[in-house]
Design goal:
The complex is a heterodimer of chains A (109) and B (116). In chain A, 0% of the residues lie in helices and 56% in strands. Chain A is mainly beta. The chains are: A mainly beta (109), B mainly beta (116). The interface between A and B is medium-sized, with 25 and 20 residues.
Chain lengths: 109, 116
């Protein structure tokens, strides 16, 4: 079973700063099947990044994804107030078919 | 416009049965997998299972195998999640999601509360 471990658990930054979120897999993940989601309070998650580095429709270009194998990164440049939320990585392909990381909370410093 | 609209919040007692629904529109229902994701209060996301409405092929998470049943009605482009006997630990928000590989559209969520 693939386990995704996200770090840090909580990240405290100010608007305008850059956020770097990590997702580490216990086994190699096919980059085509590594995604990132954003969840704001009392809202459903939304897809940000798929295929490790492709932005979903309507996602601003300050969001970018990178990585391969077991190490993946979500970077958010020039943080906007609406970016403070919880972020999840997710993989597809190994049993169980889909796995989510435990999430990183991005909070305003 | 793709939409996944879920049924409303439910309050149930332990041992009761429940079916929640996910009504879709804006795309060809039978061409995309539909999955279910659980989020327990204050916790993260857990994939429960997924169904292909075209032929009702299903994939289940081992963690939820035997606990829930997924189905789909092609005639009304709607997916369902069913519990035969609820327990307090089923209290959670449940999301339906579209996609294979990643989940590009999400329903608004159905809050299920199980309490005696």
């Amino acid at each position: 079973e693939i386990v995704l471990t996200q770090s840090p658990g909580t990240l405290s930054l100010s608007p305008g700063e850059r956020a770097t979120l990590s997702c580490r897999a216990s086994q190699s993940v096919n980059s085509r099947y590594l995604a990132w989601y954003q969840q704001k309070p009392d809202q459903a998650p939304r897809l940000l990044i798929y295929g490790a580095s492709s932005r979903a429709t309507g996602i601003p270009d300050r969001f970018s994804g990178s990585g391969s194998g077991t190490d993946f990164t979500l970077t958010i440049n020039r943080l906007e107030p609406e970016d403070f939320a919880v972020y999840y990585c997710q993989q597809y392909g190994s049993s169980p078919l889909y796995t989510f990381g435990q999430g990183t909370r991005l909070e305003i410093k | 416009e793709v939409q996944l609209v879920q049924s409303g919040a439910e309050v149930k007692k332990p041992g009761e049965s429940l079916t929640i629904s996910c009504m879709t529109s804006g795309y060809i229902f039978t061409n995309y997998w539909i999955g279910w994701v659980r989020q327990m209060p204050g916790k993260g996301l857990e994939w429960m299972g997924t169904i292909y409405p075209g032929d009702s092929d299903t994939r289940n998470s081992p963690s939820f195998q035997g606990q829930v049943t997924m189905s789909a009605d092609k005639s009304i482009s709607t997916a369902y999640l069913h519990w035969g006997s609820l327990t307090a630990s089923d209290t959670a928000m449940y999301y339906c999601v579209r996609g294979s590989g990643n989940f590009d559209y999400w329903g608004q969520g159905t809050l299920v509360t199980v309490s005696s």
